[in-house]
């Protein structure tokens, strides 16, 4: 076999129909688009149009709502923290915060903060600062001899104190 003999298998490639090349070709004049009208023109796509029938997106009822104020936390489990510590990506002796989690690659992006959950087992004693944590995660960290600090809770307390001072 030589390079100039390389070919696709028979029937692997279809020749495209050449549209609008004379009436004798069978696809001339209107090129298979029918006569006139919006759909015969180029650049038209009537998405969701069902020929006058009520379209699906209008037949189905509206449900729920999207809360634009909802916080989108990056979730991390205790087991993931332990594997990062075992791999040497995180130092359990130093305090762990969002910046350390990002640089070690444990989380890809912080979003509205990191939330700690209790899935998995934590053996290392860690001091971690996160935006939020489940009660089970806090007890698991404290059982291992560590400490969990909530960054968001501190901010709201500081705001409340500032609001109280302004009222005086």
Précis, in short:
With 168 residues, the protein is an alpha/beta fold. Helix content is 27%, strand content 11%.
Tags for this entry?
168 residues; alpha/beta; Ribosomal Protein L15, Chain: K, domain 2; 2 domains; 5 helices; 5 strands; 27% helix
What is the annotated CATH architecture of the largest domain?
A: Ribosomal Protein L15, Chain: K, domain 2
Helix content: 25-40%
Number of domains: 2
Rg from Cα? 31 Å
Computed structural class: alpha/beta
Point out poorly predicted stretches: none
Span of the ends, CA to CA: 92 Å
CATH class of the largest domain: Alpha Beta
CATH topology of the largest domain: Ribosomal Protein L15, Chain: K, domain 2
Q: State the total count of DSSP E strands.
A: 5
Identify the strand order in the major beta sheet.
Answer: 1-2-4
Give the overall average pLDDT: 89
The biggest beta sheet reads:
3 strands, parallel
In N-to-C order, the SSE pattern is: HEHHEEEHEH
